[in-house]
Write a structure and sequence with these properties.
The protein is α/β, with parallel strands linked by helices and 155 residues long. It has 6 helices and 6 strands. The chain has a 6-stranded parallel sheet with strand order 1-2-3-4-5-6. It is globular, with a radius of gyration of 15 Å.
């Protein structure tokens, strides 16, 4: 799994896209977190459908801040939950180059509203946010985005 792959990945400093979708990484995310800071050129990280839970987010979210060029992050279809969303928030608020964020299908609706109310005003470069929530929540987040003067596309 990821524990075996991580050492090989650590030698790929110029990697720009890392697509690990549907690999059942789960707890192996800690091994990936250890090598993420070596990807100084990484622009896209796809971790959808990997059974990453709140503990996994706690393990890897600090490493996300160490990828200065990351523009696209896909965490959809995991099991982040409320605790994971809270753990992810500080990292997201410091990711200045992030343009596209997908958090859909993570069982985070209630917590996401609270966290995203704080994040939307500070994530000024974010252009697309996929949350996969109810129409009411998406409408509320769009209104907040407009108040902040953002052209953020929310779905």
């Amino acid at each position: 799994g990821m524990r075996a792959l991580a050492p090989a990945l650590s030698n790929m400093e110029s990697l720009r896209v890392l697509n690990l979708g549907r690999n059942d990484i789960g707890t192996g995310i800690a091994a990936l977190a250890a090598v993420l800071p070596t990807f100084s050129q990484l622009q896209e990280l796809n971790l959808w459908g990997n059974a990453i839970d709140a503990d996994g987010v706690i393990d890897f979210s600090p490493a996300l801040c160490k990828i200065p060029r990351l523009q696209r992050l896909n965490l959809s279809g995991n099991s982040i939950g409320s605790e994971g969303m809270r753990a992810l928030a500080p990292a997201l608020s410091n990711m200045e180059s992030l343009r596209v964020l997908n958090l859909g299908r993570n069982d985070i609706e209630d917590e996401a509203i609270i966290v995203l109310r704080v994040l939307i005003p500070v994530m000024r470069n974010l252009k697309e946010l996929a949350v996969g929530m109810s129409t009411e929540v998406i409408t509320e987040l769009k209104e907040l985005s407009e108040i902040c003067g953002s052209t953020l596309k929310i779905s």
